[in-house]
Amino acid sequence: MKIAHIALFVRELEQARDFFIEYFGGRANEGYHNPKTGFRSYFIRFDDGAQIELMQKPALSDGTQSGSCYGYAHMAFSVGSRAAVDELTERLRAAGYAVISGPRTTGDGYYESCIAAFEGNLIEITE
Questions:
Q1: From the centroid of its chain, how far is CA 36?
Q2: pLDDT bucket at 41, cuts 50 / 70 / 90
Q3: In 3D, which of 63, 65, 53 has the Cα closest to residue 16?
Q4: Which label site among 46, 48, 92, 116 has the fewest CB atoms less than 10 Å from its CB?
Q5: d(CA 63, CA 27)
Q6: May I ask the CATH class of domain 1-75?
Q7: In this predicted model, what pLDDT tens digit does every residue of 59-101 receive, in sequence order?
Q8: How far from 115 is each of 15, 31, 72, 103, CA to CA, in Å?
């Protein structure tokens, strides 16, 4: 298993994108925008394959970790296949962890689920 990406909600999306490009040699995708929800994101890829997802959406707070505040949003782990996403999601559900979403295919084409892990931290499980 490997970490697929780390995601952060930010106030200034393009400024954050440019920071990782300029100072850490990251390469950004063209970005994603969901006009229905106002959600916008960029994936920044680094030479070793690591990625950061920078995200922005309306009405975020500076409150506690909830998936809708600035800062850490979730960690994503790639498990290799849709079947593995389904299997691990069900194992975690059976162990008493809340499944927040999925498994599902997202608007930008990812197959994933999201669970609330220890201390409410969100963990995304992807192909």
A1: 19
A2: very high
A3: 53
A4: 48
A5: 30
A6: alpha beta
A7: 776 655 555 667 778 878 889 999 999 999 999 999 999 999 9
A8: 29, 25, 15, 10
Whether 10 contacts 55, CB under 8 Å: yes
Say how far residue 80 (Cα) sits from the centre of its chain. Answer: 16
Which pLDDT score is estimated for 17? 95
How many CB atoms lie under 10 A from the CB of residue 76?
A: 21
Tell the residue number behind the tokens 């070793």, with chain if given.
48
**Residue 45, strand partner residues:** 27, 51
Name residues whose C-beta falls within 8 Å of residue 12's C-beta, 6 or more positions apart in sequence. none
Q: Which of 30, 40, 34, 51 is nearest to 9 (CA)?
A: 40
| Helical segments of the chain, H only | 13-24, 82-94
Alpha-carbon gap, residue 37 to 50, rounded angstroms: 27
Give residue for tokens 């995304």.
Answer: 124
CATH superfamily of 79-127: 2,3-Dihydroxybiphenyl 1,2-Dioxygenase, domain 1 (3.10.180.10)
What CA–CA distance (Å, rounded) separates 115 from 113? Answer: 7
